[in-house]
Amino acid sequence: MNNLMLMVPMLHQGGFERVCVATGRLLSKYYNVTILIFSDKDINYDVTGLNVVNINVPSTSKFGKLGKVFNVLRRAFKVSSQKRKLGIDICYSFGSSANYVNTLSKFGNRAKVLTGIRCSTDMENKKEVGLFCNRADQVLSCSKEIMRQLKAEYNYERSSYIYNPLDTETIRKQAEDDKNYREATDLFGNGRIAVLDEDRSYPVLISVGRQDYIKGFWHLIKAFSLVLKEYPKARLMIVGTGDFSKFRKLAEDLGIAENVYFPGLQKNPFSFVNNADMYVLSSNHEGFPNAILEAMALGKPCVAADCKTGPREILLNDKEYQSLIDKKPDGSSTEEIIEGEFGIIVPDMSQEMNFDASVIEDREVLLAEGIMRMLIDKEKMAAYGKKAYERALTYNPDSYADELHEILKRV
Length: 411
Hints:
The chain is an alpha/beta fold and 411 residues long. The protein folds into two domains: 3-165 and 396-410, Rossmann fold (3-Layer(aba) Sandwich); 168-393, Rossmann fold. Helix content is 42%, strand content 15%. The chain contains 16 helices and 14 strands. It has helices at 15-26, 64-86, 96-104, 126-135, 144-154, 168-176, 179-183, 217-227, 245-253, 270-274, 290-297, 311-315, 318-327, 362-375, 378-393, 397-410; strands at 3-8, 32-37, 51-54, 90-94, 112-117, 138-141, 159-161, 204-208, 235-239, 260-264, 278-281, 302-305, 338-339, 344-346. The strands form two sheets. The protein has a seven-stranded parallel sheet, with helices on both faces. Strands 10-9-8-11-12-14-13 form a seven-stranded mixed sheet, sandwiched between helices. α2 crosses α3 and α8 (217-227) packs across α14. The radius of gyration is 21 Å and the shape is globular. It starts with a strand and ends with a helix.
């Protein structure tokens, strides 16, 4: 049995960290798996039974760029030592900072290097992508779009893609435990999050993610303010870690603060999603958005911005996806709302943060329209919920493990 190392900076939160842990468990039938992390601060995932090695070189802001370079070199030296010590045959890294260390620790050991490009933002730094491609034995992405970009922009052939695994059964089981949902309160004093009215006539929307500009939550709040004109009792929950004070202020300026709830970071966000009626993704960048897939596993109809990589591959069927590529061969966003087989796609959102409540952009209006197309037609909403669940079932963890094993055999 070969020795496989999965490298990730931390196991605190985020999509690729979760995928790393899931990959470690799923591939244990094929490999002796080690998960290597740079810091064990605030581990937020269950790593019971997994072999986790912490090299204890956390990120630092000391000494500016020079300090960061020195930190990367320290990590690379320690990782190379671990690769030799553990007799690692293949090392697969998750995220840019881990990719740097993986490529720089290539020398002095026999481990093949597999770098993971998991988000369209990873593609924006050409020098970085060039390093990951040139120094890696293969590049693995979680999106067909990223692989297409590597071919078109870098003429890079040694790449593969594999969609993230989705443990639908576990997600649905965890969603049933709604104690944390019932007890959670809003970070800004809006009271309890839970909506316990079994016969409520108003919709509850949800989005899950850390406070980061790529999530575009200001777009979502502005779009939601338009939805409230038709559904004045509707609620929006934004679940995730970070400082949301600017977003709360935006909601106040829009006069909708009583309708927008911020529960903060939740170890079990699934119970929150399960108690919502619709999932909305307003990101301007993604890799392969796990959160929307997890919502689909719970049968939630979804509306998503056509951000670079991810949503279109999830919510459109193959024919719809190819039709969009034919119209936009450069991979740019749709300019109109698409009612796909598995969900609704709206045009991509701007990257420019704008917390001015008096400015509502055209694409925020289209996001609101996409949401309203669901809300005004209960039969359509129910049908999309069923289709979402069907789609979620196709991201089978066992199939993921088998496909990834085949990719690793070719490295």
